[in-house]
Specification:
The structure is a homodimer of 346-residue chains. Chain A is α/β, with parallel strands linked by helices and 346 residues long. Chain A has two domains: 176 residues, Isopropylmalate Dehydrogenase (3-Layer(aba) Sandwich); 140 residues, Isopropylmalate Dehydrogenase. In chain A, 41% of the residues lie in helices and 22% in strands. The first copy, chain A, has eleven helices and twelve strands. In chain A, strands 2-1-3-12-11-4-5-10-8-9 form a ten-stranded mixed beta sheet, sandwiched between helices. Chain A has a two-stranded antiparallel ribbon with strand order 6-7. In chain A, helix 1 packs across helix 9 and helix 9 packs antiparallel against helix 10. The radius of gyration of chain A is 20 Å and the shape is globular. Chain A starts with a strand and ends with a helix. The complex binds 3-isopropylmalic acid (2 copies). One 3-isopropylmalic acid (IPM) sits at the interface of chains B and A.
């Protein structure tokens, strides 16, 4: 019999609530012969306030012993900006070398979008997860004075760019439209931009069936609202990916339904799956959060571990559920989770 | 009698066509007693191909002798990406210390937007123009090899941040809603982010009537498409400003109507006004380009030089013209310019 050994990090705010529903749906969809073992970790604001710790070496060792990680949300206004982001979220992405940050955007039937005319949106962003302006390189001199200088260094390597570009080409190759767009700002960030562009063009030679285009990040935001249907797969750097995936989520149903995977394709470390949304402390504990993004993140987790049928079953259930929402009164977090659990089991 | 001594840079592609209409409207709106003198400069792709020059010290001296600069567009596919951007556009912004990059977004009545429900959009972005990731700091080692490393350094100074933040507060103070949003990514780019946030909070104390908020750049893209009416004045760094102003233009009528000013408020160097759009070589020379963004840039130019009445007259004329477009057959570049010139004169 098979087993799925899952590290669960509910985290802060609505994280607790949405993760409970994600696990509910996971249990309902898993084949009988798969033994699901979960271990919960208490990372986040409470642990930080209690111990001053965000993510220790021992924590990383404990997490490493799992097949995958499911995370709700980390972040609370009581913790200074950056402490949990750099001390936990980014530390984990870097420690486990999560270089493929996968963020699909699909506007499902019946789902509201701020765009007029209900465009067809179905693309996936492959965001680099371990380089760029996210490395924490940089510093400050003369802090707090009128002579302060603060720098941020974007670090880009051929090694790091090539592996994520190659992953994106493979994903594009496997999709019906076989299109890949590189998004950067190579007319201004010429050092990093030329590296990205050259590597992209070199890898493209190995994928002659994939149609490629290059787009500046500023222009990309225009296309995301005027012609989102033009995108199939996008590959981009860490910061540009952060920005455009929030925009992509907004136009394709909102961050209530945006899932993501922080993937290490080598399998040397467990990959981590999380909704794109944050901890939303303003609505925490009220049963108001939509668990759909977490449930869709569970689907990404299952696909990553080879459970393709189960992943598709979750996605179909979500699609049906969203399509029928217009007719229903608002439901609580657990009511939505219950409905999805019934659907995937049935 | 007064004089307006204008440097004109038509540039590449549609730049020539739209600048001609901008000048047409400028001539029509200027009071009789103002003597308009224009000097045309041939910067752009042709000059680069002919001489290898983009912008020399002598060019900068010649430009400096003017009250302001009107630019059409610079850029052509025949020139490698980055050469004209860094060698001309950014060189000029840095040489003339254009630290206030002003980009208003207003959805005028009757103008199409990709957003559903025709939201009320009327805000202005104050984008820092001389720092951040645009400084050209950085480099490449082992270029072209599998060991290449490319860096980009974002440089931020208290001096540079404070002056643009102060400018933005003053603009917010002068507007009816008196709201100012700082957009950054201070949870990840903690060095630069803390500098921006601290300076912003310090200057805020001098403007107690201005309501402030902070927003991460990724979240800002969501609000720009779901709640654009919430924004009044935005202040942000050079790169974030580049990205969100293209998105802002897209939702408020498109880059065909997006104007900008590269302003040096000290007056030590002439400020430069240009449409946000590029040279659009695909439609160049066909009379298809919309000169409205250039005409609105002329309005910003006039306001900067103290011609408030004339600036407002241009903006009113554009507003009326756009409102009536739905009923009209498509017009050529010069037909739109003619119509606007008649309106501002009348
Ligand atoms: C919380 C923050 C560190 C994170 C990021 O910037 O990557 C978030 O915005 C995301 O997109 O996952
Ligand atoms: C052409 C390019 C250098 C420029 C920029 O990035 O600032 C443009 O996108 C703009 O917004 O004016």
């Amino acid at each position: 019999s098979r087993s799925l050994n899952l590290a669960v990090i509910p985290g802060d705010g609505i994280g607790q609530e949405v993760v409970a529903e994600g696990l509910k749906v996971l249990s309902a969809v898993l084949p009988q012969d798969v033994k699901l073992e979960t271990k919960e970790f208490d990372f986040g604001a409470r642990r930080y306030h209690a111990t001053g710790e965000t993510l220790t070496d021992a924590d990383l060792d404990a997490l490493k012993a799992h097949d995958a990680i499911l995370l709700g949300a980390i972040g609370d206004p009581s913790v200074p900006s950056g402490v949990l982001e750099r001390g936990f979220l980014l530390k984990l992405r870097f420690a486990f070398d999560h270089h493929v940050n996968l963020r699909p955007s699909k506007l499902l039937p019946g789902v509201a979008t701020p765009l007029a005319g209900q465009p067809e949106i179905d693309f996936v962003v492959v965001r680099e997860g371990t380089e760029g302006p996210y490395t924490g390189n940089g510093g400050t001199i003369r802090k707090g004075t009128e002579h302060e200088v603060a720098t941020e260094v974007s670090v880009n390597t051929a090694y790091g760019v090539e592996r994520v570009v190659r992953d994106a080409f493979a994903r594009a190759q496997a999709r019906p439209r076989k299109k890949l767009a590189l998004i950067h700002k190579n007319n201004v960030l010429t050092f990093a931009g030329h590296l990205w562009t050259n590597v992209f063009n070199k890898v493209a030679e190995e994928f002659p069936e994939v149609t490629t285009e290059y787009m500046h990040v500023d222009a990309a935001t225009i296309y995301l609202v005027t012609q989102p249907e033009r995108f199939d797969v996008i590959v981009t750097d860490n910061l540009f990916g952060d920005i455009i995936t929030d925009l992509a989520a907004a136009v394709s149903g909102g961050i209530g339904v945006a899932a993501s995977g922080n993937i290490n394709p080598s399998g040397d470390f467990p990959s981590m799956f999380e909704p794109v949304h944050g901890s939303a402390p303003d609505i925490a504990g009220q049963g108001k959060a939509d668990p759909t993004a977490t449930v869709l993140s569970v689907a990404l987790l299952l696909r990553h571990l080879g459970y393709e049928t189960e992943a598709a079953r979750i996605e179909d259930a979500v699609s049906t559920d969203l399509g029928e929402r217009g007719d229903l009164p608002a439901r609580s977090t657990s009511e939505i989770g219950d409905a999805l659990a019934v659907r995937v089991a049935g």
